[in-house]
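Input record (one chain):
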Amino acid sequence: MRGIYEEYRRKLRTPEEAVQVVKSGDWVDYTTALGFPILLDAALAKRRDELWDVKLRGNLSFGPVQTVECDPGREHFYYNSWHCSAYERKLCDRGLCNFIPMLFRNVVPYYRRFLTVNVVMVSVTPMDKHGYFNFSCAGGIARGIAECADVVILEVNERLPRILGGFDESIHISEVDFVVEGEHPPLPEFPVSPPSPEDREIARWLVGQIPSGATLQLGIGGMPNTVGALLAESDLEDLGMHTELCGDAYFHLAQAGKLTNRRKSYQRNKGVSGIFFGSGGFYDWLDLNPGIIMEPLEHVNDPHMIARQENMISINSCIAADLYGQVCAESAGLRHISGTGGQLDYLTGAAMSKGGKAFVCMTSSFVDKSGARRSRIVPHFSGDIVTDPRSQAYYIVTEYGGVNLAGRSSWERAERLISIAHPDFREELIAAAEAQNIWRRSNRR
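The corresponding structure, as predicted from the sequence alone:
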């Protein structure tokens, strides 16, 4: 045991000392979400004037990213994101962040096959008595990136929960080049916004489609959290968790006694995820919880793994859908919002599951900055990024109900989607469908 502590002391550096390894032109990775290395990023930002063209990769960073904020001209640091948080979206708006298209299950394979990582910096829990650090809330991709890096720097964050794992949840001191310590602020919390009346209507419809014993994937956003809240109040029992992102919805289900994982057909009695963030007591719930395990996203998001769960229910949000059944969940026109993430992975896997269903949800309309109401169901996309192709369209849901597009022709899709559009836009959508030759005279008006 003494040997691991001696090795720890040999590798211990201040943040300022550790970042000296970064050279101009390097690729530096910050992994994901709460794996973001606050102290190391700040120390690297202090080296701005002596470094040029250092390329950074991260995702779901909650900010601030000091290396970005200190260099608005992007001459010294050039930041890129695999999946944008609200903060990173604002960076994109300012021209300070570039998006990297992906499916989340492919991120680590991309590193292994195609990408260079000169230095990885990631926050971890304190080392245990066996010499292991836990990747905590970033375990979905952190280990895979670290294995590809020339230099591995760990930032010990004393506030992170230790999350048990199926595999790849930890790293040993012998695999690490440098370790840094320091005080950290409380973990960021993400309180759930109150649902709108439309959100509640969508959630009520969805809850009616979910059987007891179902395994749930709830995506990012207010809608999945609203579904979780209604499920917690429902009569359903023995729900399971297999999800890319674990947040407050699952915490509330567990508190209500609904999340037991007992009837999962694969990894029974274990809730599985790869990324974690939430609010309040969520982090305490995760810490050393035997009912929760963290696994790499290349495994968690593999559609064949998802399909092993019978009655797999996938619930995600989107920004818009067109009359052909294409779904946009990551841009508003050409303005970047988030990313593909795992939505398409779960859309595919849940549809393959015995008894499974894949739902993509949105309010039927929204009010823009000028105060005008706009339809989220549009005749066709013009510049919007397609997240889910029409060939993999299944259930689309608004506050006016849900429709299944699987196996339906273009005119059937148009009819069904218009039936759940906001009533103010249905006639103009019918006219558009007629102009696009995807409307039958016999269709209902």
